[in-house]
Design goal:
single chain, about 400 residues, mainly alpha, 18 helices, globular, disordered C terminus
Length: about 400
Amino acid sequence: MSGWVHRLIPRAGLLGSLAAIALVLIAFIPLLEIWHEPLVGLPSLAVILCTLVARKKFPFKLPGALAALLVGGGIHYLLLASGWIEPSSTPFDPSVGLWPTEWLTAFRFEWWGTMDDSFRYLPIVIPFALATVVGGIDCTESAKAVGDEYHTGTVIGIEAVAAIVAAICGGVVQTTPYIGHPAYKAMGGRAGYTLATALFVGSAGVIGYFGYLFAWIPPAAIFPILIFVGLEITAQSFHATPDRHYPAVALCCLPAMASLAMIFVGNVLAESGKSLDDLSPTLALQIQTLRVLAAGFIVTSLLWAASLAAMIDGKLRVAAAFMACAAVASLFGVIHSPFPDSPLALPWNLPSELPNYAHTLSPLRVATAYGLASGLLLVWSLWSDWSSVGRAPGAEAASSIED
């Protein structure tokens, strides 16, 4: 199934949705952290951009990522020593996390007795799982774009097995191939890099030294690496996509921008203790529109880009088919769910009644809108076929006169 999706969706859709995540989420949010401490973050970012993007060698041939960490970390501790910046307090005691044993309780399998209770969360879990699977397919295409061919079905299969094993060990999030293959390859990372990362992260989880890394390494010194990862993925997405499909790749970023905005809007609402019902109807509608656009944005980006790429190639029926897929997906909440947790729902049995300001964005109306767009493209395609057939005799007559 995953291989079929991989072959069906054009590269603009697969890589565009990945670029949306990379540029809007992976790169932008760390940029905010850099600007929290610009005296540390900007010099570190300059090192990253010069070494990893501009490909200039750092003195003493230090790797760019290590050089950025040393420069940023050095400035941070010099500023601390001179009193220019105040030491930030760690919100927890790192020693408490050493040698954690709570995860071992998962092997008592007590959770099996509450399995029935978990089924009520499936409407929330399934859209998240679908987005994760799409992310795995996107990552496989990203690797293919830089010359590393992997079998999509095998990658998704290993992802599924890993998620099941992690669940038995107490994990609650589905696994997926890590985004950024082109960036790590550009940094010189190979199979050994992946193995070293797994050993490092795995040992950190078992031993519990993540807390010390959090306390010792200033975020502004390490986050510029994520800026590079986001830029490299975005650049590669455009580089590996035909020029004519660039608008489709760019279109992918719009739903991701809505998701980014909702992160901050959600934090503000939670901090203030307000809901959309407490806001003016105009503002409530604007935020609700952001919520609907943001829900399932990975799948939305993929379908939008695939449809636009098909339009650009003159395949209006294919574009109509992608719009029809979006209609079905939005009807059941896979994309554009109007509810905060983005659950799956039957359109005639919604989890709760939508307020007045949200009625125009109900699943039925959004699905109908996609259906109208799909029908328009289909009729347009049929009309184009009919027009070309109608012009054919005249063209042949003109050709015979000229002969």
